[in-house]
Amino acid sequence: MEKSKYLLFGRLKDSQEYFIINPLTKQADIMEAATAEAFLKGEYENEADLIEKGYLVDPQEESRAYKRAYLDFIDERDADEIQIFYVPTYACNFSCSYCYQAEYTEQSLAYQPEIIDAFFSYVDREFAGRDKYITIFGGEPLLSNEPTKKNIAKLLEEATKRSLGIAIVTNGYTLKDYVPLFSDAFIKEIQVTVDGPQEIHDQRRMLHGGAGTFSQIIEGIDAALEAGIPINLRAVVDKENFPHLIELAHFATERGWSENPLFKTQLGRNYELHSCQSDQSKLYDRVSLYEDLYEMIKEHPEFLTFHTPAYSLSKFLFEHGEMPDPLFDSCPACKTEWAFDSSGRIYSCTATVGKDDEVLGTFYPKVTRADDIIEQWEERDVTTIPECKDCGLQLACGGGCGSVAKNRTGCIQSSDCRPVDKLLGMGLSLYFQQLTQD
Ligand code: SF4
Ligand code: SF4
Q1: What is the DSSP code string of 88-125?
Q2: Higher pLDDT, 68 or 46
Q3: Which is it for strands 56-57 and 27-31: parallel, antiparallel or unpaired?
Q4: What is the CATH number that goes with domain 81-309?
Q5: 360 CB less than 6 Å from ligand 2?
Q6: Cβ of residue 417 lying under 6 Å from some atom of ligand 2
Q7: Residue 107: pLDDT above 80?
């Protein structure tokens, strides 16, 4: 018997104890320091228990279990709902300080019924028999001009005809005006970005010309929640607005949002995706953002009513009391995610949509597909990325983001490493020790 190839093992932050996890056998434990140190040296206390949980394994049996789990993963993914993004326009009424789309060429705004019809024909044909929903994305999809409103009305009408759910990613500025239009559609959620309390948000997410946008967005969120529409509030975080996140959490609680079952949140890390950020020093890397969240949550545990950070598997374990299935792939591009824009072009996902060198085909005026590139996206997972094949973190990491990996190396089949062990050390300590101590 030897240690599992997939063991996640490390010290809990601010503690003498260790965590030991096997994502393949879905076991997780906290180990006393002395037991862990002995384990590291290959001296096993209670060997039968370590074998039963899959921390010590027969490598051949483990390899068979890996193959079985991989086949289950593929089966489940094949049955998963597909998220289909549609970008009616890349135009936007904001000039956010960090916008990665700022360098994209804007398109003219026009009512485009034939293109929307062609998009739905493609969806009907290519994704027949699959559960799916449409996410309307931009630019800013909810601009207040007439052609934009007609495009949105047409998208809602065609989706509703097919009983497809709709999600919308918007800056929220015109949301209040649009809410009545959503009454007959099945709106899964509306994602709106708020970067902090008013003063901070308005310095980062302003209209062209510099006017603030916070008050209108807040009214839009209130109106949507009032109409029974789920809101996913996203804050894009860097070192400039991080100190004010707790104020945003308090604001959401005072407004009654945090306790509303229709309200959820996500934190997006402001990072360099395609264009050069003017000031790199304000950006967080994955570990430093979670380190600052750890300290902030220790001081303000009430932040968790607003947002509970994932810390790799930690949040799932904390909330479900069990391990998730092993993660052979963390990038849904061309598997359960696709993106389309009103120029008639097809892309792998939201990170690549609108980039000339990422086009995978067209749905209008005629259908074309770059099958060789699509195949590379479809095949990308920890079994095909060379660096991941022997990586012990693979079943919690999943190989990361294909777009980030491709931007780094030029190759889709390359890694975007997640600091899984460091995140687990922080998250398990926070959720299972720091916040539960008297
Ligand atoms: S490439 Fe990145 S952004 Fe796109 S689906 Fe994959 S993980 Fe998500
Ligand atoms: S992306 Fe990096 S950390 Fe993740 S499984 Fe691959 S090699 Fe390991």
Answers
A1: S----SB--TT-TTTTSPP------HHHHHHHHHHHHH
A2: 68
A3: unpaired
A4: 3.20.20.70
A5: no
A6: yes
A7: no
